[in-house]
Structure formats: C-alpha cells, structure tokens
Automatic annotation (TrEMBL):
<feature type="transmembrane region" description="Helical">
    <location>
        <begin position="203"/>
        <end position="229"/>
    </location>
</feature>
<feature type="transmembrane region" description="Helical">
    <location>
        <begin position="275"/>
        <end position="292"/>
    </location>
</feature>
<feature type="transmembrane region" description="Helical">
    <location>
        <begin position="86"/>
        <end position="115"/>
    </location>
</feature>
<feature type="transmembrane region" description="Helical">
    <location>
        <begin position="12"/>
        <end position="32"/>
    </location>
</feature>
<dbReference type="Pfam" id="PF01040">
    <property type="entry name" value="UbiA"/>
</dbReference>
<feature type="transmembrane region" description="Helical">
    <location>
        <begin position="135"/>
        <end position="153"/>
    </location>
</feature>
<dbReference type="GO" id="GO:0016765">
    <property type="term" value="F:transferase activity, transferring alkyl or aryl (other than methyl) groups"/>
</dbReference>
<dbReference type="InterPro" id="IPR000537">
    <property type="entry name" value="UbiA_prenyltransferase"/>
</dbReference>
<keyword id="KW-0808">Transferase</keyword>
<keyword id="KW-0812">Transmembrane</keyword>
<feature type="transmembrane region" description="Helical">
    <location>
        <begin position="165"/>
        <end position="182"/>
    </location>
</feature>
<feature type="transmembrane region" description="Helical">
    <location>
        <begin position="39"/>
        <end position="56"/>
    </location>
</feature>
<dbReference type="GO" id="GO:0016020">
    <property type="term" value="C:membrane"/>
</dbReference>
<protein>
    <submittedName>
        <fullName>1,4-dihydroxy-2-naphthoate octaprenyltransferase</fullName>
    </submittedName>
</protein>
<keyword id="KW-0472">Membrane</keyword>
<keyword id="KW-1133">Transmembrane helix</keyword>
<feature type="transmembrane region" description="Helical">
    <location>
        <begin position="235"/>
        <end position="254"/>
    </location>
</feature>
Length: 293
C-alpha cells in the first residue's frame, strides 16, 4: 500500500530530533527587547522545527543511507523513494508557511533548505569536506537561524542588526561549533565507509572532545561578555545555573571516553543532546519570560 510506504519513511524525517535545535529559536527570541506576536513566533517554530528541519533531516538520510544509528534513530528504516517525496512536500510546506509570515523569512527558509541539500547531495556533498561542512552547519544552524527567527517574528532591522544582537548571534554559532562535532563522534565507521571526512573523524575521538570543550568555553565566555555589555546579569546567572547539568554531563562523558573510546556511542550522544537542549531551552525561555513579565 502506498500510504504504508510513506508511513515507514516518515521516521527518517526525525521530527523529534529537530526539537534538539530549539535552543537557537528561544535564544533568538530572548534577545529581542521590542514586543513581538506570540502567534508569529509559533508560526516560525512550526516552519522551522516541524517542516524545514525535518525536510533537511530526510534529505540527508536519503543520500546517507545509514546502516547504523543516526541522530534520533537507533535503528533507522531502509531509505525509499517515498522519503524523497516527503522531503519535497515538507520543503513546499515550509516555504509556503513562511510566506504567510513575511517574504524575507520565506526567502531565508528557502536558502536554508537549498544549503542543507548541498550539504547532502551526492553531486556536491559538502558533508565530505570537514571544514566546509562544519562552517555550513555552525553558521546556518547558529547565527543564520538566530537572525532568521527574529526576522520571522517581525523584529525591526534596527534591533536585528544592533551590534549587541549580532554578538549574541555569533554566540549561537560558537555553541554549535562546540557541539556539532560531538554529534558525529559515534559515526566514524559509517562516515569512513561513505568517504565523508567529517571534522570529528579528522580530530579523532579524544580530539573531538577537546575541540568541543574549547568551542563551548569560547561560546560561554562570549555570551558572558555580551550579557555584561547589555547589562543583563540576571540572564547570565540563569544561563550558568541551567547549564550546570550540561557541564557536569559533558565532563563525565569525556572522562569515560578517555578511559574507554567505546563510550563515544549513540546512547551517550543522544543523552548529551537531550540534556543540553532541555537545559538551554529552559534558560532562554526563562530569560524571555523575565523580559515579558
């Protein structure tokens, strides 16, 4: 049955995994000081997290054809042509939904979708180049998405392009720079089989954790400087409190990996993603509520 084939392909869109990118959405909103429409914010969330990101995930899965665990799926189903049909549908819905908010947001969503395809498409496949793939991911899922979220909710150009806001946007990219290699650390065998020289593969398992730690530390330091500049010390305190569990989990995981490289596995990676996404989202939501209330 055709519908059964589409139902089997649907998990490869990895919609729950897309939720792990929520912190950038909340971070972008928490940085705004002018009022915005909650309805528009909900629309942006739906377009990005329920449509655009799943379309990107599905397209990546279509060309990766992973045989082992991937982000959000320990045992992914076989790739089929129906998956690509779902990707095109979600692409169209994402751009169409973005158009309902504003033209600029729709254009940015369309560009994001095109870049994500260049990341995976076998004729280009930026993913096989460690530096190019890292730059694309940390910029487009970090700074670009941060600003795209603000444009989607209708923030003014003056607020979006204010130096303080741009510094916070840079912070989002620095955090992605630290966390992105960790998402690759358990896939070295799969990536090697496909010929994808990912950053984590180049760094090695221990090198990945050192790089991640330095990236996250640089991001946190820059964020602290930004909050000092904006005179938002309560936000800095909220961030430090909320990310305490993340720091503890990362250090404990790094220690385990140092003693046994097999600890750099799917389960540990997903747990790190879940905890960091939840804690960061809570921090930025509290900052947003503090400003609104």
């Amino acid at each position: 049955m055709p519908f059964a084939a589409y139902r089997r392909a649907l998990p490869l869109l990895r919609i729950p995994f897309s939720v792990y990118l929520m912190p950038i959405f909340w971070f972008g909103l928490s940085a705004l000081r002018q009022p915005f429409s909650p309805a528009r914010a909900a629309g942006v969330f739906i377009v990005l997290h329920l449509l655009a990101y799943p379309a990107s995930n599905g397209y990546n899965s279509y060309y990766d054809r992973d045989e082992g665990s991937i982000g959000g799926l320990k045992s992914p189903p076989k790739v089929s042509a129906e998956l690509l049909h779902l990707v095109w549908l979600f692409d169209a819905l994402a751009v169409g939904g973005a158009l309902l908010l504003n033209w600029w947001f729709a254009l940015l969503v369309a560009i994001y979708l095109l870049v994500s395809k260049a990341y995976s498409y076998e004729g280009i496949r930026l993913k096989k180049y460690p530096l190019a793939s890292t730059v694309v991911v940390v910029v487009f899922q970090g700074l670009y998405t941060f600003l795209m979220t603000q444009i989607g909710v209708g923030a003014s150009p003056a607020e979006i392009y204010h130096p303080q806001n741009l510094l916070l946007a840079l912070v989002s990219t620095l955090f992605l720079c630290g966390s992105y290699p960790l998402t690759q650390v358990y896939q070295h065998q799969e990536d090697s089989r496909r010929g994808d020289q990912t950053l984590s593969l180049r760094l090695g398992i221990r090198g990945t954790f050192v790089f991640a730690g330095l990236g996250l530390l640089l991001g946190a330091t820059t964020l602290a400087a930004a909050y000092f500049w904006r005179r938002e010390l309560p936000n800095l305190l909220l961030f430090l409190l909320a990310t305490g569990p993340v720091t503890f989990l990362f250090l404990r995981w790094a220690r385990a990996v140092w003693h046994d490289a097999r600890a750099a596995d799917f389960d540990h990676t997903m747990r790190m993603n879940q905890v960091s996404s939840l804690c960061l989202s809570v921090a930025f939501v509290l900052m947003l509520l503090r400003h609104l209330l």
